[in-house]
Amino acid sequence: MSLVQQLPALQVAVPLLTAPLVILLRGPALAWAAASAASAMAFAIAIALTATVLSQGAISYDMGGWPAPYGITLNIDALSALVLLLVTGASAVTLLCGRASLGQAMDPGRQHLFFAAWLIVLAGLSGIAITGDAFNVFVFMEISSLATYVLIAAGSDRRALTATFKYLIMGTIGATFYLIGVGLVYMMTGTLNFADMEVRIADVTDHRPILVAAGFITVGLALKAAVFPLHIWLPGAYTYAPHMVTAFLAACSTKVAIYILLRFDFLVFQGNFDVHAVRFVTFLAPLALLGILVGSAVAMVQGHLKRLLAFSSVAQVGYILLGASFASAAGLTASIAHMFNHALAKGALFLAVAAIATRVAGLRLDDIAGIARRMPFTAAAMALAGASLVGIPGTAGFVSKWLLLQAAFEQGAFGIMSAVVVVASSLAAVYYVWRIVEAMYFGTPASGETATADSAVAEAPWPLLAGLWLVALSNIYFGLVPSLPITLSETAAIELLRNMP
Amino acid sequence: MSPADTIATAILLPLVGAVFIALCGRWPNVRESVTLFTASALAIVVWSLTPLIMAGDRPELVVAQLFGGLSLAFKVEPLGMLFAALAATLWIVNSVYSIGYMRGNNEKNQTRFYVCFAIALSAALGVAFAGNLVTLFLSYEILTLSTFPLVAHKGDAATVRSARVYLGILLGTSIALFLPAIIWTYSVAGTLDFEPGGILSGKLAGPAVGLLLALYVFGIGKAAMMPVHRWLPAAMVAPTPVSALLHAVAVVKAGVFTLTKVIIYVFGVDFLFAEPSAEWLLYAAAFTIIAASVVALRQQNLKRMLAYSTIGQLSYVILAAAILTPLSEVGAAIHIVAHAFGKITLFFAAGAIYTASKKTELHQLRGIGARMPWTMAAFTIGALSMIGVPPTGGFVSKWFILAGAFQSDNYVAIFTIILSTVLNAAYFLPIIFMAWFSTEAPGGKAHGEAPWPAVLALCVTALATLAFFFFNQPVLELESQLVGRIK
Predict the structure, then answer these.
(1) Is residue B239 part of a domain?
(2) pLDDT digits (tens, 9 = 90+) for A197-216
(3) B74: in domain
(4) Is the pLDDT of residue A124 over 70?
(5) Residues 6+ apart with CB under 8 A from A413
(6) DSSP codes, A453-479
(7) Average pLDDT over residues A156-179
(8) Alpha carbons A259 and A254: distance in angstroms, whole number
(9) What's the confidence (pLDDT) of residue A273?
(10) Which of A241, A279, B247, B427 is the most exposed, having the fewest neighbouring CB atoms within 10 Å of its CB?
(11) Given CB atoms, is A430 within the 8 Å cutoff of chain B?
């Protein structure tokens, strides 16, 4: 077998095996170079896999040559390809361009450990997206979560530790719930393979354990995905983590949890299971709507830039879930496309935050007042990404908002209500993005000592700026030429709905 | 050059111009030459399309397929042609005026001003030529965003507050109402292309039609129907050339133009005429006309008064479109032109007065006719056109709107137009009287006319206001294509 055919295995193996190597390298520059190279390679592999999926359909790969029911299968279909792109892309861009920001956050003697943990997160998240085995998902989830706690705790603010602790407790509960659910499904079907489960669950006669399993899995993954009201770990974790970690995690980590949630609820539980009384729709849709409203409302009154964006993420998770809870092809397409588009917008915003943080001490809105005069390129990219978050036409955010509203209009009265909520939340987004833009462009820096310190503020380091603009411009690109995310999400929606009545 | 290339050139030219303006920022004379050159070239390009449209051609340009059968496409039809030609031509005059005004007042950040102006023009042409609602919406939002730095030009606290109102209302209404209306239309009609006769006929009925119309009317905030009009007075904090070209022509006309286009090409005139739930539009427009005139009567600040006058005049266009007869639809199109000439003249005059004397309030204008005869002569012509006195352009459009109203025995419209004419006279005539026949308050600063480019520009537009009374045949011919031949 040629190396090309081993790409699915390499997707996880490359970052996983580079991680110990990075520890051995020790020197911060070398460690960074190795981690970036591995991450870039993972991104390249993801692109290659996506190209294959687009041209030839889903890929299936037996680990170690063991066939399906016995061995572990890696499955890459349109949905996993899209999530893979997000995970590896976010990691590659943030690592390659974010060295200046990281160097600021921690002393060089410990950086190699940090990069090793980063690679393990990358391996874990890609593993979840790629594996076809429910227990394997749990293993990768734990790998990535434990390493994520390390990354967040590396934040220079002491409050990062309490934020990590909160995340650790809630994340562990989430993972445990997931494991209990998988155990119950295994008990009833005798398999851990997703494809097998999908078939065998039809023969199960006693539905009660499956219902319990669905409850555990949905709640467990909702915790990981920061679905309202289980989101309370997210604002702290995003706020106090090192800026590059926030950019990486905000772009992909919650989406990976939603990815597994969609797999389970649509492929395993939904279609084969008509007595599934507490439907995904009736349970998650209200939470999605509440999350949208509460997340947006809270974001409107935040004074801290990262916390504001974090609450906006809670609302955006609501958008993704709302689309899925319509359980229609249009709704799922909107939901999956929004995963992609939101990752672009939020990734760019947090990169801009990182860029600003390299030059300014605080990240409250007062601290960034008038920053546009000194960092015009950073501010412009931030405004552009903000426009995408709001959903201004011509940006990626507009595409998913359009699809979501269009899907909502198919749903009758409930759809109209959802559309109203989405529109209200868009207006809230106009407001909070506008607060940032206004502070950057029209705010006057506080007088006195800060003003003199500010006069030294210059543009962010160029690699950071380049990465920031790359992501910001891809918001425009995918706003005008959205065929890649649309094709992937349309295919994924059809695949997810194959068991629907 | 094929017609499709011409369309692309017209949209791209101002953008290319913007890049060069930005590059030449250090040399003001070169920079202004670039603006003037771009504006003239644009006017030539846009005008070169008119013979085709006159001949009944409808050139198209599909730029890109977006998603789900939507596309980024342009298609030129008579109404858009008129709007584009108007905006492009007045940009030249306005640029001449801007040079006088911006230098005369030593404004800061002039490069940013000219760059944003060029981008706004490109967006306005995008609105004019849009072949479907998605393209129109995209251009509409770019127009909002690109004019925002112009409104916030001064950058002090009061300006930023007004600019916030501007952006909040325009962006808010478009996202909250206009976008859902478009998506609703798409899910009902399955297409968003502008088709003669409309795309909704037979696909929607009952109160839903009235509701969808309401989403459009109030979602297109640029049309400044009450109660979503407040952004327009707020926008008056901008330098006067912005108020003149953008908030008397390009932006506000983009609003009423979009609305007229939606009525003619999305709903279809016949469809709306037969639908009782759409009748409210007439009353809403009538209310806005009267209310805006009453508010204008109470204003003390010249620019704010002109802003409320604009709100009223915009609703003339909406009223005309809502009468839903062939003559009135033509009247709506003509009023877009007639009001543009008159109102840009009035704003030019207001800016010239400010530049020469720093006067902004109405009571300060006593006897100013003696000091600034050219400016006040132009102001008088513009004001007469607002009232609709012959021989000015305002008379022509009012004639057609009234004729359309009589055609369908629409007494609400007739009464509104008459009452509004009286009110217009009531707030313009005292100013004209004061300016010419009162004596100046003692102790005033001696001043003459504004810098010559400003005076030249306002004389040109004043002459155009007069000329439109005599030479309106081409416009009539072009717009009569909207509704088939009319006698």
Answers:
(1) no
(2) 888 887 887 878 888 888 89
(3) no
(4) yes
(5) none
(6) HHTT--PPPHHHHHHHHHHHHHHHHHH
(7) 91
(8) 9
(9) 59
(10) A279
(11) yes
